[in-house]
Amino acid sequence: MSAVGGVIRSDIAALAAYHVQDAAGYIKLDAMENPFALPETLRDGLAKQLSNTAINRYPDPACAALTTALRSAMGIPKELDILHGNGSDEIIQMLALACAKPGAKLLSVEPAFVMFKMIATFCRMTYVGVPLRAADFRLDADAMLAAITEHQPVLTFLAYPNNPTGNLFEREDVRRIIRASPGLVVIDEAYFAFSSQSFLDEISQFPNAVLMRTVSKLGLAGVRLGVLIGRHAWLTEVDKVRLPYNINSFTQTAATFLLENIGEFIAQTKVLVAERTAMAANLGRLFARFPGTLCFHSEANFILIRVPDAAAVFAALKARKILVKNTSQSHTLMQDTLRITIGSPAENVAFLTALTSILESQYA
Ligand SMILES: *Cc1c(COP(=O)(O)O)cnc(C)c1O
Fold it and tell me: What is the enclosing helix (H) or strand (E) of 258?
């Protein structure tokens, strides 16, 4: 056995690292990024703020200015606490670390955001995934409730809307899951800006639910900032596994300034929601011509589609310098699916034009 193999945990050695496609030179519709650059009107102000940042000092551990900006931008009620993460990915990891008693289980749906399962593995938790309904990816509430009874998960993650499927679950089903859960239920609202549906005003009614948001999908993916919102009793415990100064000074400065100008990003989001509506209509018209194709309803900034040979369509798009996400291998329910991030109007036209000619040549 090699030195490395003898030292690294076997469950870690068995993992594939989170893979990010090389995107240089491509129209990038693979990672749910906002396609728009930082608005011109904010650039000088941001530069000034960043150059005044005291980088000789450790960051503010309490993120005081950022907390004020977040509370105001996201309308977070006074009675709820906030915990900051280096992206919501780090918050998922903090939650898992804090709850990973020996034998503890982490529950979610399948397909779900891949980091739920990866982080469960990192923290030696047992991952339980309950399949969504095959036809339309709706939540199978009875199966979820049965899994909760059987597995008694300490943590349950529900993305609302769900990634990679894009749909919102029935609110009453989410409530039933929270009520039935012996552990903590985390509602991941990474795509809130595109769905306008939230549990923020309900969360304090439940003793065992917290909510997660991120600025990534809003146009600030490079800043790396996520927040956990919930009762003081939960957040003080999770805060104990947070590394000191996890939110660096540049992130605090930039996010504070940009959240004070959140209107600019909301405006971009509105364009993307209109583009999503147009994309769904255009795909609907296109797919009516080709049997075996399907477009799933989305409340996020991406649309999941099914095509007869997703690998071939993915490759043909890539040859035309358009990068999407081939989600076909991620779960048996995801066979022959591609996840398309909504881009700028010009990028969406380029995608539709390319997809049209690819399907026409494949079906000819
Ligand atoms: C993108 C995404 C995240 C990750 O957000 P970061 O704040 O960038 O780490 C979390 N949850 C879901 C469901 C996502 O799709």
Answer: helix 249-260
